[in-house]
Hints:
With 214 residues, the protein is mainly alpha-helical. It has a domain at 3-88. The protein has six helices and two strands; from the N terminus they run ααααααββ. The protein has a two-stranded antiparallel sheet. A hairpin with a 5-residue loop joins β1 (191-195) and β2. The radius of gyration is 51 Å and the shape is elongated. The protein starts with 14 loop residues before the first helix and ends in a 9-residue tail after the last strand. Residues 62-89, 124-165 form a coiled coil. InterPro entries: Homeodomain-like_sf, RsfA-like, SANT/Myb. Residues 5-61 form the Myb-like domain. This is RsfA family transcriptional regulator. Keywords: Coiled coil.
Amino acid sequence: xxxxxxxxxxxxxxxxxxxxxxxxxxxxxxxxxxxxxxxxxxxxxxxxxxxxxxxxxxxxxxxxxxxxxxxxxxxxxxxxxxxxxxxxxxxxxxxxxxxxxxxxxxxxxxxxxxxxxxxxxxxxxxxxxxxxxxxxxxxxxxxxxxxxxxxxxxxxxxxxxxxxxxxxxxxxxxxxxxxxxxxxxxxxxxxxxxxxxxxxxxxxxxxxxxxxxx
Length: 214
């Protein structure tokens, strides 16, 4: 039956309940398990919810068992270290036939580590080479961009100059056209137009022709 469907205790915690909770949680700590797993086991033993066991542990029991908890953690570290050492020696710590690694196993292990190190070194060199190539390419693109920008600026300046010259030329041609279509009435009034050295039209008085010499 699921825990949620069971009738859970709601009464106060007793000293015996605290001792059972501490025993279970400390066992899980020593074995390298989690406190949550300990709360779940204590829940089944005590008939309380795992949340209630966790709250009781954090609120009261952990403070009372502080020194014992530290000892359990040290024991867990020592047990883990022994298991790792046993695996390196080629066997299980609790197995009666556990033996040291043979020289062949040692050499094979060292070769694997060497190959792994060489592979990572090769990847590192490739990454450095690619980084250098991308840096050089970036500098080349910077130089190209600078050159194109300078050319564009020069072309823009040339365009502005030509545009100004064209505008002045159009103005001169327009003034010349107006001067060319002056009718006889304007000429008879005694003045005419001429273009100065700057391309501007100026009005000049009509000059009477010189009298013919007798």
